[in-house]
């Protein structure tokens, strides 16, 4: 089956290319209405927003993971992730900033494009960074459009609740799916006094619920619940009719998200309590690098298998030539 992303092509563009062949038109129409479509980099069917809705309706947990570049996008896809998030956490875990508030729209776009080149099968969501959507709904729509057009994102995520209702409505009204994010909103860490668990008191728990209901009403297709106690997150999940994607919010959510570099152990400045380290890749990579240093220093690397041979007669001629020069 040819590999192409039908979602990026409109029927109006495709039909004339097929000429007058009715059979072809009909098979295209059949293909158009019957995802799965195989994708270029993996043999997986393309995940769309409808796949996410179906998983939720079937009560099947949704998997989400961050990716920050082409190889991690590709690996997330190969590993079977449903939704790839180009999260602004990449500011800290991949670019070394102290917080997510420093990263710019252009930097995020650069990473979003790279992830999109690798993650063809999963549904790609990109964070709108701090400062790109709070000022006005108009600015938010303009920036969201950039993430779809220039960053090849299929949805955007923004942090906040009740106060963002109008903004979410405006972005979804132009055809861009929005993923909400309530509870701990790291972009507001200055106002929160750090990266603190939210919803630990009755009042706070109700306020997070109010935020989740507000973003649902505004049109979000799902909402991230970050760092809230499990009973609160489970209750919110039961109150909503859209999927909740938990991070540090227990096992009662409709799905889970983690930051890739945390879970594979390549970011060692700190590991949040909620993160399970599936690998300690930092140790593996450091050991490989120091072995490489040793082998270069001892001239063990490169060995013959890593060198390009010359044809024997050409090598002979070349050695003769050198001898004559001496
Ligand atoms: O930026 C990010 O990686 C996120 C996840 C923690 C949900 O927003």
From TrEMBL:
Using the UniProt record, name the top-level EC class of this enzyme in a single word.
Answer: transferase
Q: Which UniProt keywords apply?
A: Pantothenate biosynthesis, Transferase
Q: Name one GO molecular function term.
A: magnesium ion binding
Q: Is-annotated flag, keyword Transferase?
A: yes
Q: What is its EC number?
A: 2.1.2.11
Q: Which reaction does it catalyse?
A: (6R)-5,10-methylene-5,6,7,8-tetrahydrofolate + 3-methyl-2-oxobutanoate + H2O = 2-dehydropantoate + (6S)-5,6,7,8-tetrahydrofolate
Query: What Gene Ontology terms for biological process does this UniProt record contain?
Result: pantothenate biosynthetic process
Pfam families registered for this protein in UniProt: Pantoate_transf (PF02548)
User: Mind telling me which InterPro entries this protein's record contains?
Assistant: Pantoate_hydroxy_MeTrfase (IPR003700), Pyrv/PenolPyrv_kinase-like_dom (IPR015813), Pyrv_kinase-like_dom_sf (IPR040442)
Q: Where are the transmembrane segments?
A: none
Q: Which NCBIfam families match?
A: panB, PRK00311.1
- What does the similarity note say? Belongs to the PanB family.
Q: What is this protein called?
A: 3-methyl-2-oxobutanoate hydroxymethyltransferase
- Native source species: Basidiobolus meristosporus CBS 931.73
